Amino acid sequence: MRTKQLPKKGTLPRLFRMLLSFYPVALPLVILCIVFSAAVSALPAVFMQNIIALLEQNAGAGWGVIGPQVLRLTLMLAILYLVSLITSFVYTRAMAVLSQGALKKLRVTLFGHMQGLPVQYFDTHAHGDIMSHYTNDADTLRQLISQSLPQLLGSGIMVLTLFSIMLYYSVWMTLVVLLGVAFMLLVVKKIGGNSARFFKRQQKSLGITEGYIEEMMAGQKVIKVFCHESEAKKGFDAVNDALFQDSEQANTFANVLAPIIMNIGNLIYVLVAMAGGALLLSKAQNLSISGLALSISIVVPFLNMTRQFSGNINQVSQQLNAVIMGLAGAGRIFALLDEKQEADSGTVTLVNVTEQNGEHTESAVRTGLWAWKQPQADGTVRYTRLSGDVRLQGVDFGYDPDKPVLHEVTLFAEPGQKVAFVGATGAGKTTITNLLNRFYDIADGKIRYDGININRIRKSDLRRAIGMVLQDTNLFTGTVLENIRYGRLDATDKACVAAAKLAGEDDFITRLPEGYETLLSGNGTNLSQGQRQLLAIARAAVADPPVMILDEATSSIDTRTEAIVQRGMDALMKGRTVFVIAHRLSTVQNSDVIMVLESGRIIERGSHARLIAEGGKYHQLYTGAFELE
Fold first, then answer.
1. Count of C-beta atoms within a 10 Å radius of residue 189
2. 589-606 confidence digits (pLDDT tens)
3. Based on C-alpha coordinates, what's the Rg of the chain?
């Protein structure tokens, strides 16, 4: 299994574009509220300067002279604070809706995209790591959207506003602040850079750890059967230690950064106070945009602005870690969204038709008669009745292009024929069925269904025309009836019950506590393995496709149950093209043709009697004279 690499650039702009597409009006409004609130928070220093200057200019005057002006300035500041409070309330409430709503929309987009990914993606990625996108990565993204980015934006606006005001009042003291801030930024770059690197590694390690836990939970019975608990624990300790190391390093740098920045801010405050005092004592000429002379009315507010300035720089540095984690989570989510979906260029579709005088006409209602709808170059449409004729010609394939699995495989299955694949594990039996469904595309050769190259058939329609019963049964949370209906969502209750009877499972279902309405959960853990397999067979029966693939379909069923199921299977297979994969050779004796595979090649083919008479590899397999490798 492999995990995705995090994208290096463009994550934040892409995140912003995504949020803007979700909330084209609310997002700009929230940003305006944050900017206004932050800017207002920097203005008290201006009012303080005006009030102190007023006191300086009217020294000795009574309250009757300066009182009205002081009250006017105070009232203006109070009004600004009130408006700022309203905007803060608006944007905090809006952010709660926006962040949760954005995550909801993102999860919908993510899950929808995931459904379109090829089977190969799930075969090559740890399932726990994929699940981590919906949990850990989504949670870090929630914190980024709802807390970190708003605070970062607010602090940034306040820093810019304060810098403008300081520059307006005194260039000399602003230079002192800038020198201190330059040193502060060097520290942030050094320590924060290390923190960022380890926070990214932490997110990746977290996905690996969850993938390992999911794998161990799924294989818990195997672990206990083979007394592998200590080895499983050692494996967990290894991935958990890696996660601990990355988390420890990330949080160490993050925790060290805040007090260092705070103390540098205190140092800047002292230096500005010393610089202001020195300039006042020396009666140096003030260099400023305002043109005001340097006085106490400038130095005192400047000290308060310095405290605010360094405090906001500190807040920015503290939010960097959450921003980095959030961007790492967003990067992993975007990496999944960037995975190429299953390509499908097919134009041939499966439609319901009616037949009259040998001519087929497309029907809007379900008729039970299906045909392939093939658009022609001249604009006309040709209908080919669905019959279940499958042919492979010179097929080559490898999951890894450099390691071919199938070599020049050629076979045909006419409608109603039963074709069996036998051979050692790894011979390529299941691979052939994967290619029929186009879970993977062949490297060379052709596969035709009813004479049509399957590359021309839309994948969803192709898969509707092929039913599968797999060795590994997956049941979903829901009732027994709903699990059977999974084969065809528009199937009636009557059709589902008929499919269950056909598979020979009606008897055990009716003895369940709630019969067909019995709720299944945890992949059907309240059923036996054989009962779960029977449900999978009924699911395929209700789909009613002309081609069936049975991949070790009776491997989990005992001999007595197999006899019951075999009658249902015979009824299910009647009139259908059937591909059977089985190691239990007693289940394939009545096949029309048996294909013996070895190392991706068909080495023998024929009926059971013929292959036994030839005394080749099949004879060895059947008599037990050959040991599967």
1. 10
2. 888 899 999 888 999 999
3. 36
**Integer Cα distance of 144 and 150 in angstroms:** 8
Do 628 and 599 meet the contact criterion of CB atoms below 8 Å apart? no
Coil, strand or helix at 599: coil
Which residues are CB-contacts of 113 (< 8 A; sequence separation ≥ 6)? 336, 337, 339, 341
> What is the rounded distance in angstroms from the CA atom of residue 181 to the CA atom of residue 589?
83
> Average pLDDT for residues 495-513, to the nearest whole number?
86
pLDDT for position 59: 63
Left if phi > 0, otherwise alpha if psi is -120 to 50, otherwise beta: which for 204? alpha
Instruction: Tell me the C-alpha distance between 420 and 426, whole Å.
Output: 16
Over the chain, what is the mean pLDDT? 83
Q: Are 399 and 118 in contact (CB under 8 A)?
A: no
Strands 478-479 and 519-520: antiparallel
Q: Report the alpha-carbon distance of residue 198 to residue 248 in Å, rounded.
A: 9
Helix (H) or strand (E) holding 409: strand 406-413
Q: Which residues contact 355 (CB under 8 A, 6 or more apart)?
A: 361, 369, 385
pLDDT of 304 strictly over 70? yes
CA–CA separation, 618 and 598 (whole Å): 11
Kindly report, residue by residue over 315-324, the tens digit of the pLDDT: 877 777 778 7
393 three-state secondary structure: strand
SS percent in the chain: helix, strand, coil, step 5: 60, 15, 25
Strands (E), 306-362: 349-356, 359-362
Residue 5 and residue 336: Cα distance in Å, rounded?
10
